[in-house]
Specification:
By secondary structure, this protein is mainly α. It is built from four helices and two strands; from the N terminus they run E-H-H-H-H-E. Strands 1-2 form a two-stranded antiparallel ribbon.
C-alpha cells in the first residue's frame, strides 16, 4: 500500500450517547486501547489526523474503529471527501 493513499479521507466520527457514558465512567469494561481511541473521537477532528496522532498502523486503526462502531460507541458525522 502506498503511503500517499489516505484510506480515511476527511471522515469524522463522534461518540454516541453510549460512547460518552463509557468514556466518562470511572471504571470501564472496555480495553484501555479502545478507551484511548474512544476519547479521541470528538465529532470535529478528521480520522486521518487521529491516526497520525496515535502513530497506530492504519490496519490497526481501522480494526479499532470498526470495533467501536460495532459496539455502538461511535457514529459517522461526516463521510470521507
Amino acid at each position: 500500500m502506498s503511503s500517499d493513499i489516505d484510506p480515511f479521507g476527511s471522515t469524522v466520527y463522534q461518540r454516541t450517547h453510549k460512547g460518552q457514558i463509557v468514556c466518562t465512567a470511572r471504571a470501564s469494561s472496555i480495553d484501555a486501547q479502545f478507551l484511548m481511541w474512544l476519547r479521541l473521537f470528538n465529532g470535529l477532528t478528521p480520522t486521518r489526523t487521529l491516526v497520525a496522532l496515535s502513530s497506530a498502523p492504519v490496519s490497526d486503526a481501522q480494526a479499532t474503529i470498526d470495533k467501536l462502531i460495532s459496539l455502538g460507541l461511535i457514529e459517522l458525522v461526516s463521510p470521507s471527501a
